[in-house]
Design brief:
elongated; 4 helices; Immunoglobulin-like; four-stranded antiparallel beta sheet
């Protein structure tokens, strides 16, 4: 007597957005790969997918080659697939699951990625001066994020007509020389700041991160351009969590002067010394397991 075949009851792609879950009406088992379980159209939509049967679910991890979904996907079990009820074996009398199911990506498409944008808050306008900004991925639905970068003026900046023309000419020149590269969870954006005008207004670097499912988030990092004097920029994550290890780096910039011989000192009220490393160096390491919330960090630098 042929055993009753498992029946598909639902499918979804939900938090934490790692797998498509195809649920059956009972515990199931199978030793087949995605190439054997799904038909050709399904495999093409999913890219280089990986499959695993666990409990009453078929878990499908979409491949890196999967295109961003524009709507629901229909997944169909292949004719030779062998998903059977657990405990009945996989012989000819075992009823095999069949059919199709629609998978919605709407929830994932609305989830923005989590990332932080770090970089200097003061840059020089001297010849061949450069500034580097980094976007650090915190959460991106299990795949590298796609980043879009540019430089613009800080919102609500008011300039004279003549100054506006000069400022935007400088920004356009910067954009023509910019360079971007990625290393896994980090996207790095380097600009030549010499075309920018040094004045008492702020520019900003804009970074837009997008997940493979379509969700996006934009962050801005304001910076001021100076032509002379000593300035200090601190690079590190804007957002931190308890129980983590974080690194901050201070860079002193002396526009028009010798770029060496700086001494650094850090102060973090409320933090025990045992949680801090590098208080007298350019690099501070912070253990937030001992963090006192709402404390303020200050870097004091001198030559």
């Amino acid at each position: 007597m042929v055993s009753t075949a498992p029946r598909i009851v639902s499918a979804g792609f939900t938090a934490p957005y790692r797998h498509i879950s195809v649920k059956f009406d009972r515990p199931v088992t199978s030793e087949q790969s995605c190439e054997q379980l799904l038909d050709a159209d399904s495999l093409q939509q999913l890219g280089d997918a990986a499959c695993q049967v666990r409990g009453s679910q078929l878990l499908i991890r979409p491949g890196d080659k999967m295109a961003p979904p524009s709507g629901p996907l229909t997944l169909t079990l292949a004719e030779g697939s062998a998903i059977v009820s657990r405990g009945v074996g996989s012989g000819p009398l075992a009823g095999r699951a069949t059919g199709s199911v629609s998978v919605s990506f709407a929830e994932a498409m609305a989830v923005p990625p989590e990332f932080s944008l770090v970089g200097p808050s003061v840059v020089c306008s001297a010849a061949d001066s450069r500034a580097t900004y980094r976007a650090l991925t915190l959460e991106g639905l299990g795949r590298a994020l796609t980043y879009t970068w540019n430089v613009t003026l800080e919102a609500d900046t008011t300039l004279t007509q003549r100054t506006t023309l000069e400022v935007w000419q400088g920004i356009n020149e910067v954009m023509e020389r910019d360079a971007t590269y990625g290393t896994g969870a980090v996207s790095v954006y380097t600009i030549n700041t010499s075309p920018l005008i040094a004045d008492d207004f702020n520019y900003q670097v804009f970074a837009k991160a997008q997940t493979w499912a379509g969700g996006s988030r934009s962050l801005f990092r304001a910076f001021r351009v100076v032509s002379s004097g000593l300035s200090v920029a601190v690079v590190g994550p804007d957002r931190i969590a308890a129980g983590g290890l974080y690194t901050y780096r201070a860079t002193a910039v002396l526009c028009g002067g010798e770029q060496r011989g700086f001494k650094y000192a850090w102060r973090l009220p409320g933090m025990p010394a045992s949680a801090l490393e590098g208080l007298d160096s350019a690099t501070l390491r912070l253990d937030t397991a001992q963090l006192v919330w709402q404390s303020e960090a200050r870097c004091v630098c001198g030559r």
